[in-house]
Amino acid sequence: MEKYYVTTPIYYVNDEPHLGHIYTTIAADVLARHQRLSGRDVFFLTGVDEHGQKVQQAAEARGIAPIELADQVVERYRDLWPELEITHNDFIRTSSGRHKKGVQAMWRRLEQAGAIYKDFYEDWYCVPCESYWTETQLKDAGCWDDKHCPDCRRVVEKVQEESYFFRLSDYQDRLIEHIRTHPDFIAPASRRNEVLSFVEGGLNDLSVSRTTFSWGVPVPGDEGHVVYVWIDALTNYLSAIGFPDQGVPDYWPADVHLIGKDILRFHTVYWPCMLMAADLPLPKRVFAHGWWTVEGEKMSKSKGNALRPADLLKDYDADVIRYFLLREVPFGQDGDFSFEALKQRYNTELANDVGNLLNRSLAMLNKYRDGVLGAVGDEREIDRALIADVQGMQQDVAEALERQAFHIALERINGVVRHGNRYVEENAPWALARSGDDARLDTVLYHLIETLRLVAVQLLPFMPEKMARMLEQIHAADVDVAAMRLADVGGWGLLKAGHRCRKPSPVFPRMD
Ligand code: MSP
User: Fold this and answer.
1) Which of 26, 195, 342, 434 has a CA that sits 20 to 30 A from residue 511's CA?
2) What is the pLDDT of residue 123?
3) pLDDT 10s digits, 397-443
4) How big is the CA angle at 160 (ends 155 and 162), to the nearest 5 degrees?
C-alpha cells in the first residue's frame, strides 16, 4: 500500500493550545483522513516540544521542574485532540527516551560526517536579570542600538560561550540546487522564493549547543552542553517513526510537513541541510500556512486575547470549526477570525446549501416514494451534466488536497451542492409528483440522493461527524467512517433501486 506521512509542528509546552495550534492540526487531520479514504497507508504525527530555555524559565517562574510543567501542558493537548476529532497515529514528546535516542543518533551522524565543530558563540548577558540574549533577540526587541536588556532596560554585556557549530554554509549550494530542481519542495510559491533569496544571500554556520541552561538533550560525549532546541525538535519527525533503530524508517521521507510561516526557515534551511549532512532523504514538501488574527487583532500573550479551543467548542461543533478554518482563508495566506464570519458561513454554505439539499431531497423521497429509491429511467442532458459534475469533483478534490489547497477543494464541493439545488428547482419534483410522471420523478430523486451521498463522502475528511450522520440517513444504516474507502463507495450508482433511505433529520440547523 502506498504510504503517506504527514506532520504538524510539535507545540511548545510553555503555552496552552490556541487557535494557531488547532489550525495546523486540523489541516493535517483532513489530509490524513483524505489519504486514508483514498486507500493510502497513512502515518499522521503530532506532539510537543518540551526542551529549551523558554520552557525552563516558564517552569522556574511557577516554581516547578520543567518536566512537571511539560506533564501538565501535554495533558491539555492530549485531551483536546479527540474533541476536535484529530486522528493522529502517534504523539511524540521530546522528553521521551525514544526521542532523546533519536537526537543523539542524529548528532553522532552529523559529527561523523564532519559537519560539527567546536568554537565560541557570542551572546549578550544581562547581569541583574541573569538572562542571556542573542543578537537577533535584541534586534527583534528594538534593543540593539544601545544594547540594553529587553526586560529591565539595563545595559547588557558581551559574553563568549563555548558552543558546537553545524557547518550549515557547506550545504548552501546543494540546498539551492535542491530547491531549484524540486519546485514542490516549498509551498506556497511566495515562500519558496523567500527561502531561495535568503539562502542565496549566504548561510552562516549554526550554533547547535548551549551551556547556559540544562533542560535539553545532552550532547553525546560532552554532557556540559545541551543540543540546540531546534536540532532537537526537528528530529522528532524521524525519532517518532523509528529512527535510528530502523535506519531510514519506512514512512520516511515525509510527504508533507505542515507548519506556520514563522518557522519556515527552520524547516526549509536547517532541517534539509541537517538531513543532507546525515545522508538521509529530504521531506517531499514543506507547506507554510499564514497567521490568524482574531477579530482584527494579533493574538498575544501579553494582551491575553488568544482564542482558546474551549471558547470555540462552547458554541460550535468541532466539524463546523474544522470547516470554517479551512474554508475562510486560502491555505498559505493570513486571515482574520471572527465569530460573525463563522456564523455567516455556517448559515449560507452549511445550513442553506448542504443542509437544505439534504433535507428537501430526503423529504421528497419520503413524501412521494415512502423513502424508497426507484429505477433510473432515460437520462437527459440535465442528469448527465449533474453526474459529470459529481464525478469531476472527486478528481478535483484529490488534486487540490495534493497541493494543500483546502479552500479550493471545499469550493469545488460547494459548487456541486449548488448544482444539486439548481437541479431540484429545474426539475421541480413536486410538479412531477402532481402530474403523475413517476418514471421521471424516480430518476430525479435518484440523482439527488446519489449526488448527496458522494458530496458527503468528499466532505467526510473535513466534517467526519456531520457527514457520518448525513450518510446514515442516506444509507439507513450506521456508517463506519474510519473504514470507508473511495474504492468501495466513490463511484456513481452504488445505491440500487429498492434501497430505502431514512427520514431527514437536520444535520446543520440554522443559527440565529
Ligand atoms: N516548537 C516549535 C515548532 C517545532 S517543529 C519541529 C514552535 N511551537 S509553537 O507552539 O510556538 O508554534 C507552533 C505553531 O503554531 C507554529 O507553526 C506557528 O506558526 C503556529 N501559530 C502560532 N500562532 C499562530 C497564529 N496566530 N495563526 C496561525 N498559526 C500560528 O514553533
Assistant:
1) 26
2) 84
3) 999 999 999 999 999 999 999 999 999 999 999 999 999 999 999 99
4) 150
Look at the chain and report how many structural domains it folds into.
2
Q: Where are the alpha helices (DSSP H) in 171-251?
A: 172-181, 189-200, 229-234, 236-239
Pseudo-torsion of CA 479, 481, 487, 490, nearest 10°? Answer: 70
Same structural domain, 270 and 353: no
Residue of 11, 15, 94, 312 to test ligand 1 pocket, by largest number of atoms within 8 Å of CB: 11
- Please give the model's pTM, rounded to 2 decimal places: 0.95
Q: 292 in ligand 1 pocket by Cβ < 6 Å?
A: yes
Which range of residues forms the domain containing residue 415?
338-489
| Ligand 1 atom nearest residue 292's Cα | 27
Residue nearest to atom 5 of ligand 1 (CA): 9
Residues 246, 171 share a domain: yes
Instruction: Give how far the C-alpha of residue 75 lies from the chain's centroid of Cα atoms, to the nearest Å.
Output: 20
Same domain as 97, residue 11: yes
CATH code (residue 410): 1.10.730.10
Q: Is residue 20 lining ligand 1, measured as CB closer than 6 Å?
A: yes
The closest-lying atom of ligand 1 relative to the alpha carbon of residue 233 is 6
Note the pLDDT tens digit of each residue in 50-77. Answer: 999 889 999 999 999 999 999 999 999 9
Residue 36 lies in a domain: yes
Tell me, yes or no, whether 73 lies in a domain: yes
The ligand 1 atom at the shortest distance from the C-alpha of residue 298 is: 26
300 belongs to a structural domain: no
Q: Find out whether 266 and 206 touch, Cβ atoms under 8 Å.
A: no
